[in-house]
Give the backbone structure.
Amino acid sequence: HSFTLLQKVFLASLILQHRIEPCELGCRIHLRIELEGPLAWLHELLRGRAWKAAVPQLLRALAKAAQQIQV
């Protein structure tokens, strides 16, 4: 399963690409984060550290939700 979230910020886009695949321990989650647009550099400077700090919590929540999916 895969999905992409797009968050528009002032003159930039935060793109989160998720891919979930089964593995021997349950599931493996791949996350790719991109920041695009004319002011992407400014958002990275101002918010990048906070966004990076939120990734572990985001992945834990995604893993919990993935475990509850009935196949």
In short: The first strand starts at residue 2 and ends at 9. The longest helix spans residues 40-67. The mean pLDDT is 89.
